[in-house]
Amino acid sequence: MSAPLIAVEDLSVTFATRGGAVRALDRVSFSVAAGERVAIVGESGSGKSVTAGAVLRILDRNAAVSGRVAFAGRDLLGIPERDMAAVRGAEIAMVFQNPRAALNPIRPVGRQIADVLARHRRAGGDAWSRAVALLREVGIPDPERRARAYPFELSGGMCQRVVIAMALACRPRLLLADEPTTGLDVTTQANVMDLMTGLASENGMAAVLITHDLALAAQYCDRIVVMHAGHVVEDAPAAVLFAHPRHPYTARLVAATPAGAGRLDELASVPGELPDLRGALLPCRYRARCERGDEACDAALPVRVMGPAHRVACWRPL
């Protein structure tokens, strides 16, 4: 079997705050093969976005990061910042949750795309023409005129298409998308997801979708990584995870997913709350919310292999 494009191994992140150390990630591990589409799902506060920020080394200065992020044979956590700056955008690109916040409000969007191309020397002296072509590629009408527009002159859906164009400008090998459909209407959400995953497939890119929407993950991704309170609790092919979730938390998430539910009362919420990551934490951070937990769960979590490409971190899997 060939080596994965990116392998995250024992990634831990702790934020130093006035209220104490926040252990946001604890030994997070997963991998993504070249051309594969993987979703990272979980509730708000589960560590999904922190994981992406740690991979790209764009977390705040109060973050202490340990572990290993092996990308194309290099540990991204160990290379100089100058080399990491060359990786961002050119080899790993990110589509951020809030497109308006990701764009410079006082610079035309075409110039912002051209800046990315010029920085990584991917368009020679014709960065502007390439920027217009990219806007056309992501489906923005009249791209020559729109390239001269400022972000406030574009709709939310168009701004997200601009951000996708920027992310794909250098044809990176890995695309990270952090809640890319937040704030968009349902029709625009589908258009943006179809566009992003379609272009990634056409260009042979691997993609990681960060989302709280398990149904969206199942629709667009090959494999799903489930996170809870900074832990990876389950990692499985999408079809397998939906049909046979093995971690109690995953089963609760599936039960809370609207797909297939005929009535509101058929949906089941996940009981309890995420633990305070500043306090004393049990080896299983789901322990206080789990109906199957007992004293055995207070030992160090095992990672059990449940089937092909299916792993669960649980003492009492379903």
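^ that was protein a. below is b, sequence first then the tokens
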Amino acid sequence: MYVRGFRDAGVPLNHLRDASRKYRSEWKTPYPLATKRFAINGRRLLCQLGNIWQEALSGQHCAFFDELGKQLVHIGDLTSEWRPLGNDRTVVLAPARAFGKPIDDISGTHTFVLSQAIQAEQDPKAVAWWFGTTESAVLDAVEFESKWLSAA
């Protein structure tokens, strides 16, 4: 999930491999990219060391715009879920739920299913009632499916 997110943002795969190898050893964790210490700025992979953000491989200091960090929910140092539309929206990807597939947080229904239902019915209120969720959750699922997955 994290590698795909970083790759979708344009971070080269070899940078991700190198950073993962380096910090797996340094931090003694099998999944360093899943920690809240990594983020992106444009196509650059950033790493937080203390209160300073720097480029993960070169160590060059840089300013960091906390956009991806606003989408991630952490338990301790590990990310427990990702909310790609933002923390105030209902689409969630969490390894502990639905094997990490994108779902509506309220009902647990896959975003794909909600998106397909709205295409067939054209009434978000009816779809929300069928699946035991809210109308805004149905619209979030449709937005996620059209915006995020069409780019993949």
